[in-house]
Amino acid sequence: MRSARLARRNVMDRPLESGLSVLLLAFGVGIISLMLLMQRSLTEDLDRNIKDIDLVLGAKGSPLQSILANVYHVDVPTGNIPLAEARKVMRHPYIESSIPLAYGDNYELFRIVGTEASYPEHYGAEVTEGRLFDAPFEVTVGAEAAAATGLSIGDTFFSAHGLKDGTDVHRDKVYTVVGVFGATGSVIDQLLLTSIESVWGVHADIEGADQEITAVLLKKKNPLAILTLPNLLRDTPMQVALPAIEMNRLTQQFGIGLSTLRAVALLIMSLSFVSVFIALFASLRDRRYELALMRTMGAPPRRLFTLVLFEGLWMTVAGIAIGLVLSRLGVVVLAGALADRFHYDVAQLAPVAGEWFLVAAALAVGTLAAALPARSALRIDISNTLGQGR
Amino acid sequence: MLRTQGLRYRYADDGPELAFPDLDVGRGKELLLLGASGTGKTTLLHLIAGMRTPSAGDVRLNGHPFSALSTAERDLARGQHMGIVFQTAHFVRSLTVSENLALARTLAGLEPDEARIESLLAGLGLSHKLNARVDALSVGEQQRVSIARAVVHGPGIILADEPTSALDDTNTDGVLDLLRQQASDSGAALLIVTHDQRLKDRMADRVELTLNPTAA
Asked: Where are the domains of chain B?
């Protein structure tokens, strides 16, 4: 019988002691792995959606709220801005390109955004069925919004007022689906895009509506735009927010909580290694006679050392494996919650680079925790041990 | 097969030294080492098995001195050429009866040989305990399994340490018969160390040796 197999049997023979060590390690590895996976998903999502957007022009208010509402579509906007005033900024010589956004309604809690063709183009969204919206009240639907609502070409629907409530329905204006976008992994997937005129027309006649929009996504031509535009807008109802800076600030605030969580996870992992160490030491004390017996049957000291080392490794490997499975279950649960609340998909389960380091570190420390008690197996005095009985 | 010459052992550097008589046990022979408590019977058995290092003298197994071997070589030689039955049966608890026997063969460098294990256990009336956990066996069954384990790898010599001291007359006969039969079946020498005077009569026609070590 090979040492690895015998070690596995010995570990399984002590379900309580082994189970506690395995569970502790699984929790430690699981929490760290979950953090790495979520960090990867959120970072990629944040980066993907922020791509080439240097400034966000919107109504005065919280810059972070402006970014979350207008770039990520997970918060309410700070208000509307007059299109005429916004155009002055869009035509500023320091600005290379601009994408206007106007919204205020939803369909089954998926946001209806009035914009131009440049918005889906910015995220590389391609229409896979039908065509892009053109006339007022034509809609092209994002991939996930289409899958969730069941909307397809030719379908008509009424929008509901606001962004978080589906009860106040505008039954006098009908939207018609003319196209569906392919999946992009960006915010486009979660949106229903239409023309800005459609958004105006829902609340008044298109000709009579106040020409207001919600925000403009800006790409700068000149770095001085970041310094110049805030001064330019000082006496207007508008402001520019910098996505990179605001998101950096947000992740730093998250970072304090994440560091605490990481410290707790590392503490749990450390405890698990102490537990492996204690479990093996206690097990060896109980099994000294057994190990001495194996020596009488021909097992050299090195083989006993290997056996105990394998027992520690089995517990470590089991803890790591269960931890990695737990972290994926955690991602699925969290992703479900995020998808329900924000229509964001962060369920990426593929291993993240940091996990390889985590696994290697856990294996190394687990081996060390097992090696110390295993050393005592090298020094067993067969005659004295057998002389003492069980 | 096994020969000891001028064996002496000292428990502590400044303690008395036990001196043991020379032994010569050939294949197929039986030898009873009889001695009262405290005369060093178990110590002698451990010296013979290479589990203790003598302060003087030597143990030769098939002509090769144990003292010339490293610890690992001595362990392997013991595993290959000896089978040991202890006063109280002990096993690897996480393994079944057959797996304990297979382990004895594996550690001796042999294939597990399930057929051999099954046949051996059948001969001992333990076929139905093949896959039982060892801690589920009765004391009598454990003793029979420990005898099976001592012979499963076909050793040249079986060493038994007080195999009958806790048994009544009937069971003493049973265990003794079993040991002699298994030794005879596998052509192994049998060396029993005991203080149990009952064995003296039962092994009267064999080489008998009374162990009386003297303090040096």
From this structure: 27-42+74-215
Say whether residue B94 is in contact with chain A using an 8 A CB cutoff.
Answer: yes
Q: Rounded distance, CA A177 to CA A169, Å? A: 17
> What does the angle CA B135 – CA B138 – CA B143 come to, to the nearest 5 degrees?
90
Contact A9 B95 (CB under 8 A): yes
> How many CB atoms neighbour CB B210 within 10 A?
12
Q: Which CATH number fits domain B27-42+74-215: 3.40.50.1000, 3.40.50.300, 3.90.230.10, 3.60.21.10?
A: 3.40.50.300
Alpha-carbon A85 to chain mean position: 37
Q: For residue B43, is pLDDT > 60? A: yes
ipTM of the complex: 0.88
Integer Cα distance of A282 and A10 in angstroms: 13
User: Do residues A56 and A67 make contact, with C-beta atoms less than 8 angstroms apart?
Assistant: yes
> What average pLDDT does chain A have?
87
Chain A residues within an 8 Å CB radius of B43: 383
pLDDT single digits (tens) A120-166:
999 999 999 999 999 999 999 999 999 999 999 999 999 888 766 66
Give the span between the Cα atoms of A262 and B59, in whole angstroms.
Answer: 61
A284-304 pLDDT tens trace: 778 888 899 999 999 999 999
Q: Which residues of A touch B79 (CB under 8 A)?
A: 296-299
Average pLDDT of chain B to the nearest whole number: 85
Bridge partner list, B64:
B61
